[in-house]
User: What shape does this take?
Amino acid sequence: MRDEDKEDKILNILISNDDGIYSRGLYELAKRMIAFGKVTVVAPDKEQSATGHAITLHRPLRCRKIKLYDLDIDAWWVNGTPTDCVKLGVETLLAEDPDLIISGINDGENLGTDIIYSGTVSAAIEGSIFNIPAIAVSYAKHGEADFSLAAEIAYDVINQVLKFNAGDCLLLNINIPEIKNKSDLKGIRITRLGVKKYKNSFKEYTDPRGNSYYWLAGELIDGELGEDTDIYAIRNGFVSITPLNIDLTGYKDINMLKAWKFT
Ligand code: MN
Assistant: This one.
């Protein structure tokens, strides 16, 4: 994402996430990214997972500069969504536009159709809307896992990404598989989004007053597991890198619709 002749430029990196500013994944990522340049964190004050691309319009946004553990970086929490954080960071809090926005490291994978709901991916998408290169990083862990290992892998991958010519590509979704040691990693795959489907999504319960309530849970049935998908890569021990764009236009249907005889 940078040209050869800019090799020595100090990168201005904005980091956000959806797990909240005090999450382990963000801390380990920020710590590693300091090697690339000036790191600034603008992240939600509490967990905002699965808030998608929501923005806050009907109440004030507050932010506060904090000391983030032992890191010698500027860090703000914002009482809003990941998208709010990136917007506020780029438009207000940072002295200059960042060269790169990284969102993560998310506690859990962001694969296939699930990325629509992802606050992690949405923070990166917001960066790309500003025309700033952006990367979402998620760790496909289940239960306790080592975020410092995930950050080490993220560092290695991003270090390579930064050396390639990315052309107009502004948005990458990176997932790291659950592994115990770095040597367990099978490699890096460039992938497309698969499809994730769930069954029995809602569990029904009864509250103390006899009324039903529902809790979203359900079992995952991997819908589409083609070998070129992100889901396949992660299930088989590869880092998955999916280039994304946010143009949702159904191009293949445009000509068909144009042939419809509207009056
Ligand atoms: Mn999350």
The radius of gyration is 19 Å. The chain is about 25% helix and 30% strand.
